[in-house]
């Protein structure tokens, strides 16, 4: 991985037309990753990241003083953001409404960096058609103590089962402990139907392999198993965006990978602010056909997972 640049504590820099103050402020103390380094990181991955983070309502994790200090989720504007972070009004529905943030370009990301955004969480639908998801996420959450081997096996199992039903999926290392198995969709069915499908699929997995899977989020019931978190697939729910930094030890980032790579990967947090830019340069987009995958949840799929 390329060495991180050094910035002066109070140095002001400009990226994509956005002014960033205190570029040398350390955000990941363990790795000495500064605000300027975060700007460099996002510049390096933006071409691959923007198609996934752009034009979706956001939930931001801000840590203005860096990781390990006070961090908070922020969905609504309370002031101070550059206008490169746009606003959209979401009208009443089940759960979420009000004024939401979205970005559609690198200046938007940089405006977030300036405000101490360390994690970018996205809705599964886009601003143009908020009520219809254009992606499903199966968030695999292993019980503590389960090795990554089990997560890998489960991911491949979900891939195969979803492929059998008719859905092509793409794996993403969360940057934390698990994998997100993601199915792009043509925005066609609305949130309630998408959730019904995902829940039924997770419940079915738990019934068929109770030794491996549980569809209930209670940690007490997880015991040596993987929680298939289908709850990301609700109106207003979010999941970590591809290529987002995580405010966790090691300055990890969420990382799209190929299914082949997943077989060789040793953990969900192997990619970080320091090594991801090199990977992007050398490997490029591990999901080249993601955007052209045209699929939707059909009646036959609903039936296959025994959703009513
Ligand atoms: P890991 O692999 O370690 O589980 P993760 O990103 O999948 O990492 P989860 O706790 O499983 O973490 O959460 C999944 C997603 O749910 C997150 O990426 C986030 O978008 C959303 N989420 C979780 N907790 C909250 C919260 N308190 N507020 C808002 N969104 C949340
Ligand atoms: Mn998870
Ligand atoms: Mn989860």
TrEMBL record:
> Signal sequence: where?
none
Specify the superkingdom.
Bacteria
What's this protein's name?
Answer: DNA ligase (ATP)
Q: Which organism is it from?
A: Faunimonas pinastri
In the complete protein, the residues contained here run 615 to 922 of 922
